[in-house]
Amino acid sequence: MLKKFRIPMLAMFLATYIVLFMSFPAVAGLIQSIPSSVEMADKGRGAEIDKVQKVLEMQMVTDKLQAYGLSADEVKAKLQSMSDEQLHLMAQASDRVLAGGDGVGFVIGILIIVILVILIMKLMDKKIIVK
Asked: pTM of the full predicted structure?
């Protein structure tokens, strides 16, 4: 009777071993695009330079650069001499700076929500009592 189950048990063990220990996860990802022409590459470089310059025009960044002893002309000269990879890294870092904002939008949003709550309470003839 053991001989009848030997081959199916071996097949089941082998299948389990292959599934658990021999399977490899599939890896997928996006590759970086390559511009098809020199004009397209220059447009991309120009857009990244504009993005970095927009961040450099912020008062906080300008003050920090002046604290390190760099003038605006030196920064612009260095920006023009950067390689495409360095410029791309700077543009990515400037995205994070621009996304942060200065907190004014957050304060305005909170004020709008408070005004809407007060308006809805007044329309429902409810009294707002602050003690």
From this structure: 0.41
